[in-house]
Specification:
The longest helix has 19 residues, at 114-132. β4 (89-96) and β5 (100-107) form a beta hairpin. The chain has one domain (8-200): Alpha-Beta Plaits (2-Layer Sandwich). The termini are close together. 28% of the residues lie in helices and 20% in strands. α2 packs antiparallel against α3. It contains six helices and eight strands, in the order αβββαββαβββααα. The chain has a four-stranded antiparallel sheet with strand order 4-5-3-8, with helices on both faces. It has 218 residues and is α+β, with helices and mostly antiparallel strands.
Length: 218
């Protein structure tokens, strides 16, 4: 079977990994943090697998509805676009909700580090948020080991899922675009300004995205 997808990496799903085991080459490029068994629910495993897309979710600290406050969403999207150029990844889909964001991205390089990409996306936004709204600091500061720590994002790396199957990728795009509809914020996905649903519908989006094209087989 020959895959004539948009990129060679798009054809990786022809030989998908087993669900519970990973080849040595995959583990060699994985960033893995393992906790004690009783802490398994907080386990963070990131696979920097060439050709995979990554579905990300970041939530504001304590799910506070701050993403659409003055200056935040605009800076977030401009920073996301800048990060995509610097870190060499395509933005396939995104949506900014009042208290969280979803992003589907595809690293263009075979060697990449999702931890660095996530930090590049999140850190400038947190810094800018407290510059624009210093009054937020007090209610978003907690003590860690007795020392005050101010957080804009929820603790941890956030949700990061590797995707390689075209059907799952398309389902992810649909899920991302319909988030505002499911939350009752709009009746149609294209009515939500802060989403790539508008781009896919041929309307003007806030930032450009790369349209995902499923591979064709011959």
């Amino acid at each position: 079977m020959v895959c004539s997808g948009r990129t060679p990496q798009a054809c990786n799903h022809l030989n998908p990994p087993e669900p519970t085991t990973f080849p040595t080459s995959t583990l060699a490029t994985a960033s893995i943090t393992t906790l004690m068994p009783r802490e398994a629910k907080n386990k963070r495993v990131t696979y920097n697998t060439p050709g995979d897309a990554h579905e990300l979710t970041f939530s504001v600290y304590r799910r506070k509805k701050l993403m659409l406050e003055e200056g935040i969403v605009e800076f977030f999207l401009n920073n996301l676009l800048a990060a995509s150029k610097q870190m060499k990844f395509d933005i396939w889909a995104y949506v900014v909700m009042p208290d969280h964001v979803h992003i589907l991205l595809w690293p263009r390089e075979e060697v990449y580090d999702m931890a660095e990409i996530r930090t590049r996306i999140k850190k400038p936004v947190a810094e800018r948020a407290f510059e624009l709204h210093p009054e937020w600091r007090k209610r978003m500061t907690v003590k860690v080991s007795g020392k005050p720590v101010t957080r804009f994002w929820q603790k941890g790396a956030g949700y990061d899922r590797n995707l390689f199957s075209p059907s799952v990728i398309l389902a992810s795009i649909d899920y991302i675009h319909n988030n505002p509809v499911r939350k009752g914020l709009v009746e149609a996905a294209t009515e939500w300004v802060w989403s790539s649903a508008r781009n896919y519908a041929g309307l003007k989006g806030e930032i450009p995205v790369v349209f995902y094209e499923p591979p064709h087989y011959t």
